[in-house]
Specification:
globular; alpha/beta; 413 residues
């Protein structure tokens, strides 16, 4: 029996912690030829301007297409600024930009919570809301001359790391070799992402996985790294319940730290997640692919469908992650943040405000310990130290400085 499977949570506690919110749909798309949206007004120590700047990120996707990102910059009439750098999917349509303008300009940055809730309940897409929210937090930190975590009460200065293999990494021996390299490099743990048919899990397809091959990889990794090295499993949502139970019982034997997204993560499957959590000792992690924000994850926690919640800034911003972290803390449920660089800084700010019993890990991008600088930024990506930890940034705001000359030179709208 999963020790968290029967936990019942008082809904009023969650509503106090997480708040009431309307459902929000994902962003439908973005055309790179649209113009920069520049919205400006005056004010007295108030938000006065919002800029959306889509730009060429200087990288190539799987089909060699140019990848884009979107910077958003919020300015007060006294010249204070805060910003965020997100995926291109955060770039808003003109109507959404106007809606955000109407909600923000002329308002005090300190009224951030109400501004966030107004945008959330108005139906702004989660990715766009996330970019605005991170920029507002960055602005508040920079105005105070403090990192965001200092505004909320910092509890720690570093966090343990883990590294994911990527799906379809190779034969089981390849997974085992990579896990060994992670252990020898000092990385704190390894997440095994086994064999998938791309898109199947996100489209709610069960019986599209490869449980026998997956179990061979899990066994090979555990044998290679030993009984004490933390290992996680991430299936991508393609098992049936029977398959998930069969693989999960092996993970119980192997002592895995969590079992992530084994089945489709639609509402229709939530009851099967409750059954899975009750049958297994290995904590169930999710939902990752659910299109909702923090309130959808709170509902899964209430039902006992997960033991480790999962969210990122693209599901409504730093505020959504903070709300879920506080709910997890109240309920005794752990939280994992699923973004990897170049979106690590907001996660690190949140992690600093929690204890290790709430957020024990931060996923990293690669085994490299070099200070890589992403085009469009002057701040290098966080690198883990010799003990497998990431340091929490201590500079004002979110801790990210953008290369504005690069961004404006390479703008695509």
């Amino acid at each position: 029996m999963n020790r968290h499977g029967n936990r019942q949570m008082d809904r009023r506690v969650f509503l106090r912690v997480a708040g009431c919110a309307a459902g929000v749909a994902f962003w439908p798309g973005w055309a790179s030829g649209r113009r920069l949206v520049l919205l400006e007004t005056g004010g007295d120590e108030l938000i006065s301007r919002i800029e959306w700047i889509p730009y060429d990120a200087g990288t190539r996707g799987p089909n060699e297409q140019a990848q884009q990102r979107c910077a958003v910059r919020i300015t007060t009439n006294h010249g204070a600024q805060g910003w965020a750098d997100f995926s291109i999917w955060a770039a808003p349509e003109q109507a959404t930009a106007l809606l955000i303008r109407d909600a923000l300009v002329g308002q005090a940055p300190g009224d951030h919570d109400n501004l966030w809730r107004d945008l959330y309940e108005s139906g702004v897409t989660l990715e766009t809301l996330g970019a605005v929210d991170v920029a507002l937090w960055d602005l508040r930190g920079r105005m105070a001359g403090k990192p965001v975590h200092a505004l909320l009460g910092a509890k720690r200065e570093k966090v343990r790391t883990y590294l994911s293999t990527g799906h379809n990494f190779g034969e089981p021996g390849s997974y085992a070799q990579y896990a060994t390299e992670c252990k020898e490099a000092g990385v704190g743990g390894i997440k095994i992402q086994p064999y998938v048919e791309w898109g199947a899990g996100r489209n709610g397809m069960a019986d599209a996985g490869f449980p026998d091959k997956d179990m061979a990889a899990y066994r090979a990794v555990r044998e290679a790294v030993g009984a004490d090295y933390p290992c996680m499993a991430d299936n991508y949502g393609t098992y049936t319940l029977d398959e998930a139970l069969r693989v999960g019982r092996l993970l119980d034997e192997l002592g895995f730290a969590w079992y992530e997204s084994p089945m489709p993560e639609t509402e229709a499957w939530s009851d099967r997640y409750v059954n899975l959590a009750r049958e297994l000792r290995t904590p169930i992690c999710g939902p990752e692919m659910h299109p909702g924000s923090f309130e959808a994850r709170v509902a899964w926690m209430e039902r006992g469908a997960c033991d480790v919640a999962r969210i990122g800034v693209h599901h409504g911003g730093f505020s959504a992650c903070l709300q879920l972290a506080r709910a997890c803390e109240s309920a005794g449920v752990r939280l994992d943040l699923h973004n990897v660089s170049p979106d690590a800084y907001g996660d690190l700010q949140l992690i600093a405000t929690t204890s290790e019993t709430v957020i024990g890990w931060r996923e990293i991008h690669s085994l490299s310990q070099s200070q890589r600088v992403v085009p469009g930024r002057t701040t290098p990506e966080p690198a883990f130290d010799g003990e497998g930890y990431l340091a929490i940034p201590t500079t004002p705001g979110m801790g990210v400085e953008l290369d504005w000359p690069y961004i404006f030179r390479h703008r695509t709208g």
